[in-house]
Amino acid sequence: MTTRSLTLATLLMLAMGVATTPVLAQSVGGNRGPAELPPTRSAPISLPANAKPAPTPQVDGTATRDIFGLDPALALESLATVSLDRGGDIFEIPASEGMRSAFEAAVRGSQGD
């Protein structure tokens, strides 16, 4: 009996939601075309008078993101995990031996040795 009541209540709520959707959609004004400018919905903000744009960061074009293009010793160092604990301390966990051996095998494979 309770399952049947819950199913009936759920179906009634869904039916009401589906039935009222067009009514609620009509109550919200929209853009009527290119002759009407759309309303702005952004929050009003004011910037401080002394605000200056941040300079555009400059990227070194010689840097590479290819881990196999690095010096293998430097690449092994970059496989470490850097963590931050709740106290604000930063600590580094070096890569495991399994990770190191897998990386060295990949480096050998990428160099064609």
Detailed description of the structure:
The chain has 113 residues and is mostly helical. The chain has three helices and two strands; from the N terminus they run H-H-E-E-H. The chain has a two-stranded antiparallel sheet with strand order 1-2. It is extended and about 65 Å long. The model has no long low-confidence stretch (mean pLDDT 77).
Helix coverage percent of residues? Answer: 40-55%
Largest sheet: 2 strands, antiparallel
Q: From the helix content, strand content and strand pairing, which structural class follows?
A: mainly alpha
Uncertain segments = none
Distance between the termini: 74 Å
As laid out across the biggest beta sheet, the strand order is 1-2
The percent range for strand residues is 5-15%
Average pLDDT, rounded to a whole number, is: 77
Note the main attributes of this structure.
mainly alpha, 113 residues
